[in-house]
């Protein structure tokens, strides 16, 4: 079967762009924001999650992955002193999403637990211009003939076409815009975790599902090219390797392969650090590998922070 992201692109009528969009890259490249000021704190966070946050010799992934995430979010929140609007965010956990759409002659639905969602009082502005959106008309979506692109999807009887953004988006809720989804692949056994490619496909499907449900709540169920596209970000990690994604829903007219396509930017397989040595390695009474974190990658942390700041800075 073909790789997951390619299938997700067809299902969501989406064009892939490698790397981060200019709006996020601009945050990374702006020295005035002082992102590097938090590098040491981020390095400390990694050491805390991987080396110190347990009475055991070494923490298990199901423990250190969530700890790392919570601590990284805490470091990001330190920027709210400089940018007060960052305090107008809320994390929603264990919420369910449902979104239904038609693709060619197939009725599709995504539903289920949707990671951890950071909501905002204001939406992320579109990251692609109107010209870039119109240019997607020329993009040809990959087909998988003779394999059906729905070959491995679960087939069920749909009695109700749900489009539900979850309890966190009920009328009157102040944090009514989806901002960033976080997926923690924290299972200790490797076979129980999604592989990076599978994780990116899952991130794309749920970013699309949240954006589609929000667009239908705002603009109704009629298929259309959106005057104001909906942007939802996604970050996935196993506690060491990070996947970054920015998804822009340009159209809810998904039946045909023609016309405007949606857009996704993906920055894949970014290590936050190379290795965590929980106990020193000793050979013949000589320490050959001291305990500690090696190969910390500040750029990966800055990408995490840039996506957090996006829409505010």
- Report the sheet-strand fraction: 25-35%
- Output the helix-strand order: HEHHHEEEEHEHEEEEEEEH
- Taken together, the total number of domains comes to 1
Average pLDDT: 89
Helix content: 25-40%
Name the shape in a single word.
globular
Report the major sheet: 7 strands, mixed
Give the helix tally.
7
Class by SSE composition: alpha+beta
Total beta strand runs: 13
Q: What is the spatial order of strands in the main beta sheet?
A: 1-9-8-7-6-5-2
Q: Give the N-to-C terminal Cα separation.
A: 41 Å
Segments where pLDDT lies below 50 for 5+ residues?
Answer: none
Family: Belongs to the mitochondrion-specific ribosomal protein mL37 family.
Organism: Pycnonotus jocosus (Red-whiskered bulbul)
InterPro entries: mtLSU_mL37 (IPR052482), Ribosomal_mL37/mL65 (IPR010793)
Subcellular location: Mitochondrion
Task: Based on the model shown, name its key terms.
alpha+beta; seven-stranded mixed sheet; 7 helices; 28% helix; 27% strand; mitochondrion; Ribosomal_mL37/mL65
Characterize this entry briefly.
This is Large ribosomal subunit protein mL37. By secondary structure, the protein is of the alpha+beta class.
What does this structure look like?
The protein has helices spanning 4-12, 22-28, 39-52, 61-77, 130-135, 196-219, 298-309; strands at residues 14-18, 89-92, 96-103, 106-113, 116-120, 177-184, 225-237, 241-251, 262-271, 275-277, 281-283, 286-289, 292-294. It has one domain (3-309). Helix content is 28%, strand content 27%. The model has no long low-confidence stretch (mean pLDDT 89). The chain is an alpha+beta fold and 313 residues long. The chain contains 7 helices and 13 strands. InterPro entries: mtLSU_mL37 (IPR052482), Ribosomal_mL37/mL65 (IPR010793).
């Amino acid at each position: 079967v073909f790789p997951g992201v390619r299938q997700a692109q067809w299902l969501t009528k989406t064009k892939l762009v490698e790397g981060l969009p200019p709006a996020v890259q601009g945050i990374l490249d702006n020295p005035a924001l002082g992102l590097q000021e938090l590098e040491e704190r981020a390095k400390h966070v990694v050491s805390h999650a991987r080396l110190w946050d347990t009475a055991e010799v070494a923490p298990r992934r199901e423990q250190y992955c969530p700890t790392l995430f919570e601590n990284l979010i805490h470091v990001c929140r330190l920027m709210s002193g400089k940018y007060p609007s960052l305090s107008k965010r809320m994390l929603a956990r264990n919420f369910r999403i449902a979104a239904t759409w038609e693709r060619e002659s197939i009725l599709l639905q995504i539903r289920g637990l949707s990671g951890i969602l950071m909501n905002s009082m204001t939406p992320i502005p579109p990251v692609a211009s109107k010209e870039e959106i119109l240019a997607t008309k020329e993009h040809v979506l990959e087909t998988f003939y003779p394999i059906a692109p729905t070959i491995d999807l679960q087939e069920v009887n749909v009695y109700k076409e749900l489009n539900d953004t979850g309890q966190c988006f009920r009328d009157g809720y102040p944090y009514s815009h989806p901002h960033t989804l976080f997926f923690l692949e924290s299972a200790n056994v490797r076979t129980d975790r999604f592989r990076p490619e599978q994780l990116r496909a899952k991130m794309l499907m749920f970013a699309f599902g949240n954006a589609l449900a929000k667009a239908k709540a705002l603009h109704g169920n009629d298929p259309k090219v959106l005057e104001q596209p909906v942007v939802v970000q996604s970050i996935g990690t196993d506690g060491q390797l990070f996947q970054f994604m920015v998804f822009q829903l340009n159209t809810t007219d998904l039946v045909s392969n023609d016309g405007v396509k949606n857009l996704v930017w993906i920055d894949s397989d970014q290590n936050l650090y190379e290795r965590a040595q929980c106990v020193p390695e000793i050979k013949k009474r000589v320490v050959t590998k001291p305990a500690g974190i090696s190969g910390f990658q500040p750029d990966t942390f800055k990408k995490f922070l840039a996506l957090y700041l996006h829409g505010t800075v």
